[in-house]
Amino acid sequence: MGGCFSLDGDVRGGMEAVGGGVTAASAQQGGLNDAVDYFFQTRGLRGLYTPIELSFSASKLRNLDAFSKSDPMLVVYTNIKGKLEEIGRTEVILNSLEPSWITKVTMSYQFEIVQPFIFRIYDVDTKYHNTPVKMLNLSQQDFLGEACCNLSEIVTKFNHSLTLNLRSDCGHGLHGTITVHAEESDSSRMAVEMTLRCLNLENKDVFSKSDPFLRISKLVETAGPIPICKTEVVPDNLNPVWRPITLTSQQYGSKDNPLLVECFDFNSSGDHVLIGAFQTTITQLESLYTSKSGANFYSHKGQRKMKGQLFVDKLQETVQHTFLDYISSGFELNFMVAVDFTASNGDPRVPQSLHYIDPSGRPNSYQQAILGVGEVLQFYDTDRRFPAWGFGARAQGHISHCFNLNTATNDCEVVGVEGIMSAYTSSLYSVSLAGPTMFGPVINKAAEIASQSLQYSNNKYFVLLIITDGVLTDIQETKDCIVRASDLPLSILIVGVGNADFKQMEILDADNGKRLESSTGRIATRDIVQFVPMREVQGGEISVVQSLLEELPGQFLHYMRTRGIKPQQQQGAGLASAPVYPPQQ
Q: Which residues does the UniProt record annotate as the domain C2 (predicted)?
């Protein structure tokens, strides 16, 4: 068996961290498991990507052959850090100006990055028709036209299809169209829901009975066991029955992939004691369910067969709607920004200031965060009108902790990422940096907007980006605001710029597996905060934007699934946007 390791450091004590904070509803809906998330975060493991299959057709292509029609082939490129990388070629279709290619391109959709594509179509010369397409020298073929887009522009369409105009390589002329269709793998929607129980577990406690919980891990040859699910803790019980758990096919892979089931006795110190473990597969768990038989646990490294057994009382396959199912059916991510204008940023007129606008055009840390996050999220917001605020400045004679960046009007919205950048720059010359640093007012404003939206529809989810350089003076109020907002369709991204001590921000980000608690003792419904200090990720393999956005699809799905909100029926057109922004006071 092997592969067992201590949970010391995996959780930081407290039953919330091993699953006790997950409600029955969230467990049944495949909600996030805080402790598993914490395991991935602390070990630098990234989230799972969604497999996408792209198919292609073209229309009204140019005819470059004298006695027949063109013989088109499509070449697909992606742009990685300014360098084109070929990711696939289709077959050659003979004598056609309206080709529909059979060859597909398979890739992984990653929400947290911009994935640009360039599509180039060539007329393959007759003398090369017997040459494998991968061996074709493209410089010897006639160029028919090219088009470009981002993958997010395709997947946000109702039918996952986007038609683009083909142009020459210098961008001039119109040379027909290409249609790209994205299909999400059906396997990514499959999930298994199980109810597990144990009998006759060995008691590891002296004065009471064990407090057991289960951890299920995927066994990977090169990485060992990778946790994919934990149950809640059942206190003082050697015959526990746990709430239903849901494993997605993206978590377990194939039904025959090996899984490790471990049962631990919970200790508040975080040093949990292994009761027993065994190796299995989803197929074998299905067999346990149909035969109503149990599987015996084994001691550490399989040295001794134990009396305790695991039973599967319920097992059924379900189809779970994915992030792309929601997005392509009209659900939106509405982007909002709040910028720190406190005096600790330094005088914007001097180069040492975090707000310094470099005449050479090099963006400062605030501009980098706005551009990076905005460039990803803008494709998920149809009207691209973004609320933008500042806080901690003296505006119109008094210190404000939530003022419109668009100081020329009384409207909190600006148009596009460019509008945010312009309003930010203008505000630097129209307000005076002050203080202190307070998040409460801007979080309350964002929560008010998210709450107002629910009066009109449930297809909007809001994302507030806060960029700050300082230490909070309203930490408890901020916690209270976040706990209240955890019931709303809202996520909060915080970027720390500069060299301040950001320990407070790490408390707001519940990546340690324990959810925030308000001053009244209320626990946050879910984790809605992601904090990233810019200095710690700059120069690394993962960008600031990727680190910020990697949890967002999961937070979105958790909100939708636990509230029973399903993707809308496709009707071929987007929903009309209802006004959701309350008037300025």
A: 28-164, 174-298
